[in-house]
Amino acid sequence: MSEESADNSAAQAVCEAKILFRQLKPFPVIDENNNFKIETAHFLESSNQIIDAIACFGKLFSPIVKDMRQNVQKITDKYKQNESLFKYLEDLILKDKDGNDNPFDTVTDGLLWLKRAFEMMEQFFRNLLEDETRSEQVKPHLKKAYEECLLPYHGFLAQKAFQLLHSFLPSRSSLLGASDSNMDNLKALEEFLALFRANLTHLNEFYTKHDLHRTYKA
């Protein structure tokens, strides 16, 4: 089986008729027993599963899915070089940065762009949860999330590419299930987003503390 076929099979297992959030592995809990750090292997597994969920949006989203998978793979490749040394994501990034003249040629940059894409998707799903109208039209929710999380880092071509993609979003019920039967899935989504956001906030604070952000536009 090819890598692409394997990715498609994994995504289909999550999607079925909707994204089944109860089947996704939650992101790591960040607490004192974990040294307030993120376990790399756990983060990578959860990242791959949420990317599988995003693949449910349809084939037109394959470029952004591919880009996220490539950034996850950069981190994975570095992690596998020394799984003990890189047990925690923060240690992996700092050691990777310190070993390169330009930290943005490394997995440090890959994680930064992955974080930004994840922030957009977390906000999109959050917008769906907070939409009291339960409208089938979800394009405004993605547009708002994009403008808040990714637009500041995108140049003209990237912005045009997003405009095309967001025009082909599936409906709310296609993503989450019919309104009369998806209460458990919505609850699972809410629980999933709590740890998802905690991980993203933690990484954002970590990048700020170590001056790892940059303003380069894609």
UniProtKB/TrEMBL annotation:
One Pfam entry name: GLTP
Domain of life: Eukaryota
InterPro entries the record matches: GLTP_sf (IPR036497), Glycolipid_transfer_prot_dom (IPR014830)
GO MF annotation list: ceramide 1-phosphate binding; ceramide 1-phosphate transfer activity
Keyword Nucleotide-binding applies: no
Gene3D superfamilies: Glycolipid transfer protein
Keyword set, alphabetical order: Transport
Residue ranges constituting the Glycolipid transfer protein domain according to the UniProt record: 38-177
Cellular component aspect of the GO annotation: cytosol
GO biological process: ceramide transport; intermembrane lipid transfer
Keyword Transcription: no
Entry protein name: AGAP001398-PA
